[in-house]
Amino acid sequence: MTHIIPLAQTETSRYRVHDAGKTATLNHGPERTVVDLADLGWRFTCGHGNDDILEPSIAAAPDCDDSDAAGWEPVTLPHTWNALDTNDGVRGNMNRTVGWYRAHLHVIAATTDAGRATVIKPTTIAASPDRRTYLEFDGVNSITSLYVNGRALAPLGSDPQDTTRDTGDPAHLGGYAMFRFDLTDVLHEGDNVIAVRVDNRRDLRVAPLFADFNFYGGIYRPARLIQTADVHLALDDHGASGLRVVTPNAGRSESIERPEHLGLTEVHANVVNDSDRLRRMLVATSIVDRDGRIVAGDTTNVEIAPHASTPVDRAVEIVNPHLWEPIDYSHNADNSDIAYQYNVRMTLIDADAAPHPSAADTGTTDTPTLDSVSEKVGYRWFHVSQNDGFFINGRSHPLRGVTRHQDREGLGNALHDAQHLEDFTLILEMGVNYLRLAHYPHANYFYDLCDANGVIVWAEIPFIDWVGEDERFADVTKEQLVELIRQQGNRPSICFWGLQNEVGNHNTANQWIAMPQLSRELNDLAHAEDATRYTTQAADQDETASERDDWASDIISWNMYPGWYSQPGFGALIEQKRSIERRPLGLSEYGTGASVDQHELHPNAHKTRPNSYWQPEEYQSLQHEEALAYINTHNWLWSTSLWNMFDFGVDHRPSEAGRFEINNKGLVTWNRRVKKDAFYLHKANWNRLDPFVYIASRRYTARAEGPSTVRVYSNLDRVWLRVAHDGGAQVAYDAVAQGNGVFTVDGLLDEPGTYTIWAYGAYDDGTAVTTGAHDAAGATDTHDDAAGAPDDATVWADQVIWTRLADDDRVNGGQSAKTLIDAADSGAVDGDAAGADGRARVTGTVIPWSLWARPDSGFALDRENRRMIAERPLHDITPEQWRAAFSFNGSGTIDFYATLPTGLTPADKAVVTAPDGTQTVFTVEEHAD
Fold it and tell me: Pfam families given for it (predicted)?
């Protein structure tokens, strides 16, 4: 019997994502106490813009009234105050302001040996004289000051010049890196008040200043308390773990040949003595394989003076290390051995209290250790060739992937591990082997996922578009680069440091430093911090190229959008950039916008364009087909990353397909619910591990256009269709392979009526054959047996039902307007008609009209009397708020007239242009009480 696998069963990959643990403990050893602060009882309030900002003397005071009545609200971490105002349909009303967080921490005396309490609750910690307490933030956007019991603290390792503009208090500048504070000397027994001031207003010292994404304010990543012994590995190095692991020969290579001493490992740390006496430590360094075996080790003795520190630098070597290999999506690939990592651990043992272990011992004696930190590393080498692209471990490995933003509809950027894991799972389902994590450092957990699953990464700093007109801008940008490299520099997945994105000469107004010079200084700094990786940049202006100003980086990539922001012609544009560039060239962004509610058989660049009402899903697919046709035949492109994996929020963006505040170039919708057609196109090209068949343009269910070309995306060798018209006999068609995962059948849906279309695919290995059109006349096979495939065959299948409309029918967003029944006028349909609000029901199914008022917009639509009714005084409504109040679910435009800045009046009109060109004039009225 034929084995049929429908599309739904192919949505889960054969590859099981390694979830890489969770972020709770990060690199902290078991000797430390780690307390997650998500549920510390945080209270939150914020101003609006530059107004209503509380003074620290008030907001940080222990006796500050942070009750509901005083305007404070309870929150948990992660949290952003911009989750909703960037998602309300009103362009430009994102609240960039100062927010305050307050929480109470109860401190008790330690009740067990070594200063650790038996039970640690989120609101209570134990303290003792031989323990240090730190507060660790994974990410706060974008300027952060901390007050404990009313006292302002400086971030560890910060520049004294890093202060808030308003108060002059110490601050951490930058919104995407980890940073810490030492709380030890300011905590006392009993109740302690922690107050965090977070500012996401524009500050000319801090990148990014402007970009095509939202700068969400808040403590949007986890926070935790860390307690260590008074002798410990340092926690003051730009948010780094305190353990720097360098594999000098397992990184960037000048050739594809295996380097000698690949397993050489240099381990660097700083041991801190915060006690009042001289301390002698035994420092044990070990490297442990995946099975828990120690494969290399070293011990050394150090002495540290009171309240001092000493560096520890050790070198060990693994002979013939197991390689960190990238993920493999080829047919029947065995990925059981990919992404192999070792665990590097440094342990501190009190030499005065413990017998000296042998040199092979790594501190696992019965004597308790004082402190330890672990890092995972992977041994691999990689090379970028100008003519042949990217190689890893001596093999060609074209990097084909996506960019990713970290936000989500309704949540902003305050994501939990589960949402990061869902994103990553979708990315791997599509077959991605490479990620450009734009435009800033991402969550530690997301990098963990890349490390554990063999996905190669471009990591970058948030230096985008503009150079700040401030003498501190260059230094603060360099600080962000140092933070990125020191915090993420041990990761085997990261092969490239990104220095800038689309910064051009027209944005270099800074009188203290010119952009070419700043690019050189950033490049030199990256090499000084890490000589084992390439530097790169994402360019969109010719002055960055080798033949022009030659902005510094080892390799370079271009952001280019033929058929969207520039004229069509994908290959021609890339070749033009290659002609002015001597460095290896990649493609860091390409793509087009797409609405899953808009469809057209033959879209074109004249009608489909940025910031327009018409951006059909089919146009995105065709543009990506053209891009892949070029990319697949040009491996000299050292990497390609389409823009973007997911739709994302941009509060200042004008309408994209009738929707404000969104960049819709993603292959998956902002809420992650819909995979666009282009998702499956890329899966057909990149993922050979998971066979599937997908009928494109599936949401175009009612079509006035025809005949139609049916496009099928598949990673199988052959595809065929079975088509039934108005319930008649099925007719079989062999699909024509167009290459790059695209199969087509022309000339279908040539008559009005309902068409059921089944697509089937199989490997060309003799286990399944098509029943071509020559023997399909009058065929009686049903889709249940895969249209005549032989017994014991395995085929993959998909199905759609489409309607070809008659000439007198209309289309609203791909739905047949002829069948719409107004719920307010019909008692024959299911459901209550009282709350129809511009929608209709057909046999109990809600179908949106083309024009409708957005929920909670304050407007209602009265079609019968052709009125737009406002729930508030007209003169209080801005033109932009009025425009944002209504949407088309499908094609069409709304033209507003007499929308004066002084406010609307009853004399104002709105002209609605329907898809067929007819126009309707609506009056504007206030709600009558």
Answer: Glyco_hydro_2_C (PF02836)
Structure tokens at 218: 């808040």
Query: Residue 429 and residue 682: Cα distance in Å, rounded?
Result: 10
Are the CB atoms for 462 and 480 separated by under 8 Å? yes
Count, in order, helices (H) and strands (E) of the chain: 9, 54
Pairing of the two strands 794-804 and 702-703: parallel
Does the pLDDT value for residue 561 go beyond 70? yes
| pLDDT tens-digit map of 200-227 | 999 999 999 999 999 999 999 999 999 9
Tell me the per-residue pLDDT of 810-830, one tens digit each, with 9 for 90 and over. Answer: 544 444 444 333 333 333 333
Per-residue model confidence (pLDDT) at position 117: 34
Are 649 and 412 in contact by the 8 Å Cβ rule? The answer is: yes
744: which strand partners? 711, 736
Q: Which two tokens stand for residue 676?
A: 């666009």
> Is the Cα torsion angle 538, 541, 542, 548 positive or negative in sign?
negative
Residue with structure tokens 């004066």?
900
What phi and psi values does residue 719 have, to the nearest 5 degrees?
A: -135, 140
Within 13 Å, how many C-alpha atoms sit on residue 89's CB side?
Answer: 18
C-beta atoms surrounding 85 within 10 Å: 17
> Which residues are within 8 A (CB) of 763 and not within 5 positions of it... i.e. 6 or more apart?
691, 716, 717
- Under DSSP, is residue 253 helix (H, G, I), strand (E, B) or coil? coil
701-725 average pLDDT score: 94
Render pLDDT for 225-260 as a digit per residue (tens, 0 to 9).
Answer: 999 999 999 999 999 999 999 999 999 999 999 999
Nearest of 104, 133, 103, 102 to residue 197 by alpha carbon = 102
Quickly count: other Cβ atoms within 10 Å of residue 918's Cβ.
9
Catalytic residues: 502
CA dist., res. 406 & res. 414, Å (int): 9
Residue 753 CB-half CA count within 13 A = 13
Name which residue leads in pLDDT, 426 or 90: 426
Distance CA 890, CA 3 (A): 38
**Residue 337: CB partners within 8 Å, gap ≥ 6?**
325
Residue in 374, 361, 531, 500 with CA at minimum distance from that of residue 448: 374
Strand partners, 460: 498
First to last CA, the chain: 69
Q: 832 CB contacts (<8 Å, ≥6 apart)?
A: none
| pLDDT (0 to 100) of residue 909 | 80
Residue 839 amino acid letter: R
**Amino acid, res. 439:** H
CA atoms within 13 A on the CB side of 39: 2
Instruction: Collapse the DSSP code of 794 into the 3-class scheme (helix H, G, I; strand E, B; otherwise coil) and give the result.
Output: strand
The Cα–Cα gap between 91 and 883 comes to: 10
SS3 311: strand
3-state secondary structure 130-184: CEEEEEEECCCECEEEEEECCEEECCCCCCCCCECCCCCCECEECCCCCEEEECC
State mean pLDDT over 569-582.
91
Mean pLDDT value across residues 602-619: 88
Q: Which residue has the higher pLDDT, 366 or 570?
A: 570
Whether the CB-CB separation of 574 and 581 falls below 8 Å is answered with no
